[in-house]
Write a structure and sequence with these properties.
By secondary structure, the chain is an alpha/beta fold. The chain is built from nine helices and 13 strands. A seven-stranded parallel beta sheet has the order 5-6-7-8-9-10-11. Helix 4 runs parallel beside helix 5.
Length: about 290
Amino acid sequence: MKDTVQIHKYTTHFESPPNALSTTGLIEGALIRCDGGYGCLQPWPSLGDENLNYHLQSIVKSDPTEQVLACLKCCEIDADARTRGIDLFDDLIIPRSHLSVPLFPIREISNDAREDFTHIKVKGNNEILKVAHYLEMIPEKISIRVDFNSSLRPNEFIEFTRELSPNCLQRIDFIEDPFPYDSNIWEQYSNQTGLNFALDRGPKDATLGFAVRIWKPTIFPQLPDSMPICVTHNMDHELGRRYATYQSAITDNAVSVHGTGIFDELKNGYGLGMTEILEELQWEELA
């Protein structure tokens, strides 16, 4: 496997920490080129993933991690389409995506963004009063999703819900990973608050305690067991986001609005597209 793999390492810079458990705005990732196809590998150590080098070395050792298998699956799909001269997005209907935002003042969301998106996903944290105040400022016609990245305790979550008006509570589509997953506890607090939960970081075979399963195709190669599915990118390279967009367009039993980001059809081409951009990058043999 290692003889056919090339990599291009990159660093993504976020203006502020991108989730409740990250203390920096920098994250390292790598694009993978394998047998003529491309994929994206970007673990999140702050969320419990092994670091990038660990995953890369699993390729060298011919013992790929699950996230590497997901990346190689993307490479395989992309390579096949490029070989056959097929645009993977041709004739696909690209589903809507929510607008993902950190906790900045709502006025910084442009008027165009408010018109273009039906759902907003807020990256929450344990400053529950700040999160609640922010949600109350979101325009009424927009549905709300909140991702706490398991940063709360159950009692903090209850306190958070008590800070919200009935109108705001009704507009919450789902709460993603409010606290670490436990099927019984999640079911209890979902029933108590009347809010839908969405599971991202949890067992692949989990089926109880949540209404929506989050699937990141660049992390897990196979669809989760539970439905419906909300496909999201991994806050990774544009290639990884394009792969998530592709999977959202072909996945059955899914929600109507995913978390795949803005899609630039001008970068379409063979496979996942971005051909000129990818070919201009510096690639090195994985060793």
